[in-house]
Design brief:
Length: 286
Amino acid sequence: MRHSIFVTLSLTGLIAVSGCDRPDSEAEVNRALRDINVIDETNLNDVMLQSSDPGEAVAYFTRASTANPDRIDLARGLAKSLIRAKRPAMAIQAWKRVTEMEEATYDDQVELADAYIRDSKWDEASATLNAIPPTHETYKRYRLEAMVADSQQQWEKADSFYEIAIGLTLKPAPVLNNWGFSKLTRGDARGAERLFAEALREDPGEFTTKNNLVLARAAQRNYDLPVIQMTQIERAQLLYTVALAAIKQGDVATGRGLLKAAIDTHPQHFEAASRSLKALEANVTN
């Protein structure tokens, strides 16, 4: 508040002093005010992009970009907000509009490809990425290239892209997790386990990676939980994951024991595990 008052007083003084000897002082002050408004609006845009309510951000950027159709920053804000709001079909249209604007960059095309992938439009994502010059080398571009190669079962190509992506970021955990899941779907459970473990060393708190790690171990019929950081609730959930994997592979007795362990471990009532145990025991009885 004090800062705002100071700015106002300073501008008032500028008008008083400059008005005596410079005929264009009013125009200069107006320009200064516009600069301050732009800074304030930029801060607001950043706040809205990080808003805890993606719906509010979508509404804000929809209004702002409609009122200022030539502002690419607002068009990007709308597209990013639609992604956060899990509305990929609408985000595709928003990113298309951004890429058609005069100030668009190759990064905007990468974001369009990302929106296509989120909407499971793999062919469109591939075409969008192929239109970007190979000299545009960014982490996100190669991460998406790897995912597209995975969708086409071009495994060697995918591995190459994943490796390049890892070399272009200081936070490789997400791409290591993606690469591990790719290995798991190919049937390379041992390779997947190694990549999930590496991802957890980078980001020990990511539960999805923990879940994937126990799935990779279970695929090798290793049903012991790994020695990793986990809460009591996470331990119960991971035991439940391993139990289902064991049952699916025909190790029913092991799966039953793991279900009971999951129920006993969870600090509250574990409805999903209890329901699965009842169904399993009913089938065994019958």
